[in-house]
Amino acid sequence: MSDLLLLKCAVDAYANLKSRYLADYELVSKIRDIARTGSISCEDLVNFVYVLREMSKLANDLRKELDGVMNILEGICCVQYVTQHADTPEKAEPIRAMLATGSPTCRLNIRMPKLRTEPELYYSVMAFFGVSREAIDSNTIKAYWPGLCDAVTQLAEQGKALPPGLDEDRTYPTYSLTVRAQQNLDELARTMTERRQEIVRRHEQEGLNEWKQECMNLLSKKGKKQDGEERS
Description:
Number of strands: 3
Number of helices: 6
Distance between the termini: 61 Å
Helix content: 55-70%
Largest sheet: 3 strands, antiparallel
């Protein structure tokens, strides 16, 4: 299956899921409103709870799978992007696709030395960023992991050395992909559905016309045959 056909299937799946979501949301809301009137028996309430629980499991399983596959695709996209622009990172631009624009980013995460088990390494890293041993020992300042990761990422982007105590074994890249829509997915799905229906109707009409013509041909041949028999 080609990439384009697979994408078409994904858009179709989105449209089907959106339609199913709206219908199911309306149904579940109706069940809630009727239940609040007190008109549903305890037996039927138990039945509803059971069905809704199973629906929730399915929806949650699907959400987990969607998130998992999405994260895998993001990672693959970012790695390919970084590899393609490894020699000329300054020329890297957002990925402009048909449906959306993607902006990959790479961030260095760190395994920060622990003050309790690796105090000297911890002091070295903090000293690099201007934090004294006294401020650490007095519990005035503590390491803020997200901020340290941002700072280390900036150092790497600028080609500067990492802080002492943070060698390559203590850093690892993480990738993220910011996606901005270029086309409205609902409008695209609606256009695709309308186009498909138009093609089906046209083919149905063409098939009907062909069938009519075939019937006329058969009748014409039969009429000619009867004509010949009568003359003979």
